[in-house]
Amino acid sequence: MAEPGPSLLLAEDDAPFRERLATALRRRGLEVQAASCVPEALALAREESPEWALVDLRMPGGSGLDLVRELKGLDPETRVVVLTAYGSIATALEAVRLGAAHYLTKPADVDRILAAFTGGPSAPEEASTPSLDLVEWEHLQRVLADCEGNVSEAARRLGMHRRSLQRKLDRTRPPR
Fold first, then answer.
1. Which Gene Ontology terms cover its molecular function (predicted)?
2. What is the spatial distance between Cα 146 and Cα 142, in angstroms, rounded to a whole number?
């Protein structure tokens, strides 16, 4: 019988994505516990400290950055990787400062996620600098998410006309 792989805590609020990812990681031999919010993830980690933790940045019940801090406080040996659709340089730096081993932006496949934990080769695009269009698009998406999809409020916060923001949001995600 093969020895089980590392234990992994998967903290992700998007239920379909969480279940697909958990299934894919289990197929790779990992012992996966999944949580949909920060309090649930902390409860699981307190029961049994995971060797690895994959943490979404934005979740109900707190920030993924708060979860990184708490997980590292519970067990400094837990290897944490942050996975987010709303990546920014500021949050990446903060995640690493708090003890995250790696910071990935969605979409990320299972091989790339596992490489982040093991220190193996990662996708070549990860080392490249994102285009200015991509950085702008991701920032607009993050502000829109902060405003719970309210384009008028997002435009006000960004200091731009609502129709200008709507045109920018209607574009597809720019290439790296």
1. phosphorelay response regulator activity; transcription cis-regulatory region binding
2. 6
